[in-house]
């Protein structure tokens, strides 16, 4: 039984979703050399327009946010025009789409933005990550530069501008990428935030940058069109630290006051338990945040539907199965078998 997935869901007075299934953000590294979305990307998203809401693959807000090849941007007029083709195609199919706004912080690599003349990798503190860019092993990660107050003000302004560009490009809203060990998340965890100023040390200080970005974006495009993804449990590009719990205990009620379109968990498998959160990431967030929550992470339609029935979250995001099944929503509705996902499918845009 998956009937509850096919109920409409009002995010607020402005946006109502045709069902409770979201397509999770999925980086595909298929934009052109100017980081402009292609027609093949428009076709790929349009094939998935039956989702209640598509969250786009992560989209970089400015050149020094790039950490992977051919990830699309939202900072040039060609990129805005390219996205307009995508959003038109999704809307023609009856769907809705949010842009996921991204800066990779300390996992950016100057290889991708050297033509801008900048070689600085930006992060809260000068604490690097081990390793190198996936599938480009020669590109080892660089020790980042700790951002100055001027850098922070510019980053906040650039998130806000990218959000305005997203609306200009026809997106229905934006999801700020605050998860998976990228820039916003780097401020929220002790592993990456060693700052001694008003952006570090205490929960209130460590949450400051994320809230400044959320507030700037919400002010620019409206809180009803602004969403956020968070990873209270560190699991990717990041070591966990039990002190992080207090940061999220402070941040989440603050976010609740902002009346966002939704809050989305960033995780690959929601069965993962975190000692310092007292269980799974979604159970923890549900216990401190009382507004619309999107669950994700190795769910099937059946397990996601029963999680919704048990009030563990309100909406279900589906990632890898949506790569394997462009018609995921119809297949589930009609009880048809799904094609199983495999990593080789990442090579093409089905
Ligand atoms: C992801 N994920 C991801 N998350 C995110 O916030 N922004 C992104 O751009 C991406 N990109 C991405 C690419 C690929 C190839 C995978 C497999 C995953 C994480 C994704 O949104 C989701 O949380 C996980 O895939 C878990 O959900 P599923 O796949 O188990 O339904
Ligand atoms: C070159 C493609 C870059 C895509 C970036 C997004 C992440 C891709 C998914 C890789 C899987 C990461 C595994 C995370 C650990 C899960 C622990 C349970």
UniProtKB/TrEMBL annotation:
Record-annotated NADH:flavin oxidoreductase/NADH oxidase N-terminal domain positions: 5-337
Superkingdom in the source lineage: Bacteria
Family annotation (PANTHER family): NADH OXIDOREDUCTASE-RELATED, OXIDOREDUCTASE-RELATED
Protein name, as recorded: Alkene reductase
Lineage: Bacteria, Pseudomonadati, Pseudomonadota, Gammaproteobacteria, Alteromonadales
């Amino acid at each position: 039984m998956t009937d509850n997935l096919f109920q409409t869901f009002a995010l607020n007075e402005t946006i109502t979703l045709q069902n409770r299934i979201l397509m999770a953000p999925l980086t595909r590294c298929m934009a052109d050399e100017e980081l402009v979305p292609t027609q093949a990307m428009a076709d790929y998203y349009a094939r998935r327009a039956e989702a209640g809401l598509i969250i786009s693959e992560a989209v970089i807000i400015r050149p020094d946010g790039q950490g992977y090849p051919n990830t699309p941007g939202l900072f040039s007029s060609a990129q805005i025009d390219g996205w307009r083709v995508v959003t038109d195609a999704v809307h023609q199919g009856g769907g809705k789409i949010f842009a996921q706004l991204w800066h990779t912080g300390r996992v950016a690599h100057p290889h991708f933005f050297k033509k801008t003349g900048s070689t600085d990798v930006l992060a809260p503190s000068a604490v690097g990550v081990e390793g190198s860019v996936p599938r480009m092993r020669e590109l080892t990660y660089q020790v980042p530069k700790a951002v100055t107050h001027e850098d922070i003000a510019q980053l906040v302004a650039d998130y806000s501008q990218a959000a305005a560009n997203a609306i200009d490009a026809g997106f229905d809203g934006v999801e700020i990428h605050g998860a998976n060990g990228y820039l916003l998340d780097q401020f929220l965890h002790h592993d990456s935030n060693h700052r001694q100023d008003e952006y570090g040390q205490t929960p209130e200080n460590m949450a400051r940058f994320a809230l400044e970005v959320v507030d700037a974006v919400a002010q620019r495009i409206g809180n009803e069109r602004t969403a956020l993804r968070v990873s209270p449990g560190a699991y990717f590009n990041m070591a966990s630290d039990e002190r992080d719990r207090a940061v999220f205990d402070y941040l989440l009620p603050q976010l609740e006051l902002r009346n966002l379109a939704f809050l989305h968990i960033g995780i690959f498998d929601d069965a993962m338990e975190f000692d310092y959160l007292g269980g799974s990431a979604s159970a923890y967030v549900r216990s401190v945040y009382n507004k619309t929550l999107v669950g994700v992470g190795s769910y099937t339609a059946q397990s996601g539907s029963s999680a919704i029935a048990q009030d563990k979250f309100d909406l279900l995001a589906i990632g890898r199965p949506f790569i394997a099944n462009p018609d995921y929503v119809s297949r589930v509705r009609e009880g048809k078998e799904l094609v199983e996902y495999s990593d080789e499918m990442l090579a093409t845009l089905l």
